[in-house]
């Protein structure tokens, strides 16, 4: 028998994702699940019918590696209409197995051993492992205050000759904050005259509230010329299990990303590409999402009034961070697990996203749920 117990690990500190842990506990205890970021309502029946039609029409074999021309055309047109940036359909866009694969390919393509990558904490939990797998060093900068702002002077101070990439995420998971026009202009000024690549995770671009506008890296010429922008169909159209995403980037960057895409998955779901190409012809399918999810956010916050949970309304995403310090001084991971086992409600502890696991006594709630689910969850939370 071979002995694999002592094989060196490429991710020795790697642990099971907190999303898997909390969702697993939620299933075991039959808890209401406001933890992992997915809706508990169905995607549009029309979109599902378009997928079925594409299958019946015979689109069941490999599509072109970087995606079918019809869908590339729709995405390029959408970005130009919303953000004023024209990407080349043939060479500056690729469809991926979810935005997570786009992030992985972007980091793998450009980060070499010894390179530094600036990541803002709290952060989505795939950035750092991807950087480490590429041999790079994550340079972690904590967002400041209860409104999670970036200190751009600190960013400037942390840039070195080894800085290969900066990763931003707006709207931001897990905090629900957004980067302003001023933020993006400061970043644009900071990166001018450098060769630093910007990786912009914009999977919640259409989930933005209170008359705010999404400030895509594509809108700013000094950023667009160096930016890899990642997006998600799953987050946008309530079908995260379909694992469909894409990224856009200048051709000089995209040609390297495509090499890694080819080596990992080569291409992604053909009938779904056909369906999205048709579905996106009606812009209202994504332009109406901000209002739809703002109603969900407002419903959840209204239900939480009078409880001991406190929070600033989310500006984007379908997550709401709430402070529970008036209830207990337990570590957030322990409190989140107890909420499941004793009260039947699953959330996500925010410390897992922070630098060094710093605990601010906050939980993240996903409000992409039916009103009935939100009402049942609030009833539980009011009893604490």
Automatic annotation (TrEMBL):
Belongs to the class-I pyridoxal-phosphate-dependent aminotransferase family. GO terms for cellular component: cytoplasm. Residues 31-380 form the Aminotransferase class I/classII large domain. InterPro entries: Aminotransferase_I/II_large, Kynurenine-oxoglutarate_AT, PyrdxlP-dep_Trfase, PyrdxlP-dep_Trfase_major, PyrdxlP-dep_Trfase_small. This is Aminotransferase. The lineage of its organism: Bacteria, Pseudomonadati, Bacteroidota, Flavobacteriia, Flavobacteriales. The keyword DNA damage does not apply. Its cofactor is pyridoxal 5'-phosphate. PANTHER family: FI04487P. Keywords: Aminotransferase, Pyridoxal phosphate, Transferase. Pfam families: Aminotran_1_2. One of its GO terms (molecular function) is kynurenine-oxoglutarate transaminase activity.
């Amino acid at each position: 028998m071979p002995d694999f117990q002592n094989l060196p690990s490429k991710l020795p500190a790697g642990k099971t994702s907190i999303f898997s842990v909390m969702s697993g506990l939620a299933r075991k205890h039959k808890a209401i699940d406001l933890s992992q970021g997915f809706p508990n309502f169905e995607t549009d029946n029309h979109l599902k019918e378009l997928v079925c039609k594409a299958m019946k029409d015979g689109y069941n074999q490999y599509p072109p590696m970087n995606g079918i021309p019809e869908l590339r055309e729709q995405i390029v047109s959408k970005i130009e209409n919303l953000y004023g940036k024209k990407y080349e359909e043939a060479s500056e866009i690729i469809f991926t197995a979810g935005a997570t694969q786009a992030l992985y390919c972007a980091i793998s393509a450009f980060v070499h051993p010894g390179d530094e990558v600036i990541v803002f904490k709290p952060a989505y939990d795939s950035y750092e492992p991807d950087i480490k797998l590429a041999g790079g060093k994550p340079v972690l900068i904590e967002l400041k205050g209860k409104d999670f702002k970036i200190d751009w002077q600190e960013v400037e101070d942390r840039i070195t000759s080894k800085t290969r990439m900066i990763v931003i995420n707006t709207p931001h998971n897990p905090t629900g904050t957004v980067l302003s026009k001023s933020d993006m202009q400061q970043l644009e000024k900071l990166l001018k005259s450098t060769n630093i690549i910007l990786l912009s995770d914009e999977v919640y671009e259409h989930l933005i509230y209170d008359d705010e506008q999404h400030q895509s890296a594509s809108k700013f010429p000094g950023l667009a010329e160096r930016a890899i922008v990642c997006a998600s169909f799953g987050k946008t159209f309530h079908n995260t299990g379909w694992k469909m995403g894409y990224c856009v980037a200048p051709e000089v960057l995209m040609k390297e990303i495509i090499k890694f895409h080819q080596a990992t998955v080569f291409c992604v779901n053909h009938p779904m590409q056909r369906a999205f190409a048709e579905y996106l012809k009606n812009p209202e399918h994504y332009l109406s999402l901000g209002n739809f999810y703002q109603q969900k956010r407002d419903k959840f916050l209204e239900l939480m009034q009078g409880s001991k949970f406190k929070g600033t309304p989310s500006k984007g995403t379908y997550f709401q961070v709430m402070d529970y310090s008036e209830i207990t001084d337990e570590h957030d991971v322990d409190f989140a697990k107890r909420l499941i086992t004793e009260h039947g409600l699953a959330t996500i502890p925010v410390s897992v996203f922070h630098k060094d696991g710093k605990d601010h006594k906050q939980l993240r709630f996903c409000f992409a749920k039916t009103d009935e689910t939100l009402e049942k969850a609030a009833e539980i939370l009011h009893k604490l």
